[in-house]
Amino acid sequence: MRSRAAAFPLLAALSWGVMFPVLASALDRVDPLNLTTARYLLASVALVALLLLREGRAGLRPAGRGVELAVLGVVGFAGFNLLTNLALEHAAPQQVALFVATTPLVTQLVRWAWDGVRPRPALLALSLVALLGVGLVITRGSLAGLGQFGLGGLMMIGAVVGWAIYTHGAGRFAGWSPLRYTTLTALAGTIAMLAGSVAADLVGVQHAPSAADLGAVSPQLAYAVVVGAVIAVLAWNTGVQRLGAANAALFMNLVPVTTFAVQIARGYRPGPVELVGAGLTIAALIAANLVNRSRGGASPRVVEQRGAAVTDPVAVVDPVAVVSR
Predict the structure, then answer these.
(1) Tell me: the pLDDT tens digits for 97-143?
(2) Which of 116, 200, 300, 310 is the residue whose CA sits 20 to 30 A from 33?
C-alpha cells in the first residue's frame, strides 16, 4: 500500500523537476510576467472548476478571511512564480531548482522569526551546507563566478522566502481542504499578476504576447498548467495524505536531480565542481528532512493537521514546509 502511495509524490516531484527547463524555453517568446499570468489564468480556471465540483459554491467563499487569503496569495503564488520566471532569465534551470529545494530550510527560519520556534542547531548547520552547495553550482568553484549569482540569485532568495511565508501561513487554514485553500489563494495571486502584467504592458516594461507567441509556447503552457499546476498538485496532496508530510517531503529532493537530468539530456555538461555542489545541497536537504523526522519533532498528529493545505509546484518541500501548512 505504501509503495503505491509513494507513486503520488514521486509523480509530483518528477513533474516539477521537468517544469523549470520547460518554462525557461518559453521565455524566448513571452515575457516572464505575461507567461506567469497566462499560466495561472488557465490553472485558476481549472482549480475553480474542480472546487465547484467537489465543494460547490460554498467552497469559493472566503469566510471572512479575504484579506489574509489575498496577502498569502500575492506573496506566495504571485511573488514566488513571478520571481522564479524572472530568475530563469538570469540563471540556469538547474540553479533555480537548487534554490527552490532549499524551501524547507528557509521555512524553518520563517517559523523561528514568526512563531519563535527555534530550529535545531543541526538544521541551521545543514542550511549553511545546502547554501554552500548552491554557491558551488552557481560559481563553479571560482570567485570570479560570484558575479553570476547577481540578480537571478537575489530573485530566487526572494521567491523562496515568499513561498516559505506562504506555506507557514497555510497552517492557519488547517480546517480547509487543500483544494479550497489552493484555489482561493491562487485566485488572489492571479488577480495581482494580471493587474501587474497589464500595467507593465501599458508602460512598455514588457510587451503583450501576440497570438503567434502564445501559440509558439502552447506546449510549454499546457505542461505547466495541466501537469505542473493541476495533476502534480493533486498527486502531491494525495501523497501527503497517504504517506504523511514528512515521508512525502523526502521526494522533493528529486526536483533538482530531475532538472539536472533534463538539462544533461539537452546537451548540458556540468563540471565536477557543479556536481559536487549539487550533491552537497541534495545531501544536506535529505539530512534536514531526516532530522525533522527524528524523535523530538512535531507529533504525527500535529504534522498531519499542519500538512492539510498543500499548494503549487515547487514549493512544499519539507516536513515543516508542507508540515507548517
Answers:
(1) 878 777 767 777 787 887 777 777 887 787 778 777 777 776 766 65
(2) 310
